[in-house]
């Protein structure tokens, strides 16, 4: 089959949030840019991740608030209905159609190719469309790899033969199941598990590690374990799934190594994400195709420009620096400045914020206490329960939470923090600034914190650090 040849200043492979932003800005700067995407322009976030999942979370939160009215503000009867959620998700995703996103991209001056792009040489990307036609685009100045990631599905015996869900199928569901098993106690599994629980599904979460949200502070696990259990969710930690079985009409059965036999109508696999380096052609730049991420320097270069040959940059999930939209957008700025020769600060990851949108929300930035101690820092912590700091908030009205601060006493700054509770992601903003800017503890202690607010607990926690 003939291969069509093309050239461009820059080829961007993968048009999720970061790839789209980089391609658009480079085109607006006057470069000839070809953008390549095999899926939906905009990536996971607007179609299967951040946006639709938060519509579901918000809807489930309204149900929870309605149920809290009785005994606190009158009486209320709440009847969950999934159809409005489905309508809202379809509207937000344009029914999983990226026509508007493609038009937006082209409007910025990007030439768009639909297909799977792979490196076939250091300066060449070959794009195969769904019909098998190929276009080899030679880059004069740069190649940007922003291919994102896919749900990681563990090799559990029997799983591949079943109609399991990942987050993508869960987002598109039109009826809530009567029961749901969730493999994975990370952000995706807990957020979606709590959503379905609040709409009437019997939910069981199975996590192989000792804690839910194993990357976060142990206090976050303790808080969520209590709240989710109170919600009616069954939680199994340190539970390894040894096999999965499925029978039409009977549903799924999980067989755990400890002997548990768990049964439900549907199964959600939420065990992380992975980037396929073989698919993107990593071998063309001597990168191990089995590696977890593309190796990049502080300027996000996989291979810097040399001897007149274009450089290769990477951004987003494929760099292994955090599978978050805000990280890919941050990296896009570094990549654009590098390609345009504008300089500026290199990428830094000491203050990456992350939020799990459960109820209560778990916001975190920087290092956990364990990570700080592993690095040999002179660690001191401050931990405050929100009910103590806010003087009278109670579990009954949904104000469970805490603030935990991690300080390095040698440098005299915060290196991490967690804000768990109502609006935990919003309260996190203050700590993100403090950790990012390395604001001295002495300055933070002088701050006036508004009363009665949840963020006031930051001031209380600071006073515990001595």
TrEMBL record:
Q: Which residues form the FAD/NAD(P)-binding domain?
A: 9-332
Q: Which residues form a coiled coil?
A: none
Obligatory cofactor(s): FAD
Domain Pyridine nucleotide-disulphide oxidoreductase dimerisation, residue spans: 352-461
Pfam families on file: Pyr_redox_2, Pyr_redox_dim
Q: Which UniProt keywords apply?
A: FAD, Flavoprotein
Matching entries from InterPro entries are given as: FAD/NAD-bd_sf, FAD/NAD-binding_dom, FAD/NAD-linked_Rdtase_dimer_sf, Pyr_nuc-diS_OxRdtase, Pyr_nucl-diS_OxRdtase_dimer
Into which family does the record put it?
A: Belongs to the class-I pyridine nucleotide-disulfide oxidoreductase family.
Name of the protein this chain belongs to: NAD(P)/FAD-dependent oxidoreductase
* Organism of provenance: Streptomyces silvisoli
């Amino acid at each position: 089959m003939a291969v069509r040849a093309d050239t461009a200043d820059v080829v961007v492979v993968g048009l999720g949030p970061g790839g789209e932003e980089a391609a658009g800005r480079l085109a607006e700067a006057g470069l000839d840019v070809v953008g390549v995407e095999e899926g939906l322009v905009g990536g996971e976030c607007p179609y299967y991740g951040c946006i639709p999942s938060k519509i579901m979370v918000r809807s489930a939160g309204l149900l929870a608030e309605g149920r809290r009215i009785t005994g606190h503000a009158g009486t209320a009867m709440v009847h969950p209905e999934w159809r409005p959620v489905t309508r809202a998700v379809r509207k937000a995703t344009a029914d999983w159609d990226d026509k508007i996103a493609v038009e937006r991209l082209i409007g910025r001056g990007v030439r768009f190719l639909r297909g799977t792009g792979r490196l076939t040489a250091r300066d060449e990307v070959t794009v195969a469309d769904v019909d098998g036609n190929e276009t080899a685009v030679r880059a004069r100045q740069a190649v940007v790899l922003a291919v994102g990631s896919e749900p990681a599905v563990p090799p559990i015996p029997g799983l591949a033969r079943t109609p399991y869900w990942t987050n993508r199928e869960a987002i598109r569901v039109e009826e809530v199941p009567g029961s749901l098993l969730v493999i994975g106690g990370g952000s995706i599994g807990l957020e979606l598990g709590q959503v379905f629980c609040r709409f009437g599904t019997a939910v069981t979460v199975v996590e192989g590690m000792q804690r839910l949200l194993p990357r976060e502070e142990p206090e976050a696990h303790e808080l969520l374990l209590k709240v989710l259990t109170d919600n009616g969710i069954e939680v199994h930690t340190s539970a390894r799934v040894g096999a999965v079985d499925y029978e039409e009409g009977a549903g799924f059965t999980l067989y755990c190594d400890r002997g548990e036999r768990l049964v439900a109508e549907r199964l959600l696999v939420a065990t992380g994400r992975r980037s396929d380096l073989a698919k993107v052609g990593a071998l063309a730049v001597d990168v191990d195709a089995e590696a977890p991420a593309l190796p990049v320097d502080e300027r996000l270069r996989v291979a810097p420009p040399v001897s007149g040959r274009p450089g290769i940059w990477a951004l987003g999930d494929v760099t292994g620096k955090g599978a978050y939209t805000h990280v890919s957008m941050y990296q896009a700025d570094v990549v654009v400045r590098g390609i345009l020769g504008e300089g500026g600060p290199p990428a830094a990851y000491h203050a990456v914020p992350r939020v799990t949108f459960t109820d209560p929300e778990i916001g975190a930035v920087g290092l956990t206490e364990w990570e700080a101690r592993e690095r040999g820092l002179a660690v001191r912590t401050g931990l405050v329960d929100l009910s103590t700091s806010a003087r009278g908030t109670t579990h009954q009205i949904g104000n469970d939470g805490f603030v935990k601060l991690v300080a390095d006493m040698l440098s005299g700054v915060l290196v991490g923090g967690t804000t768990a509770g109502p609006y935990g992601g919003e309260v996190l903003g203050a700590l993100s600034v403090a950790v990012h800017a390395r604001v001295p503890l002495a300055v933070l202690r002088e701050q006036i914190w508004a009363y009665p607010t949840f963020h006031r607990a930051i001031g209380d926690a600071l006073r515990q650090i001595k």
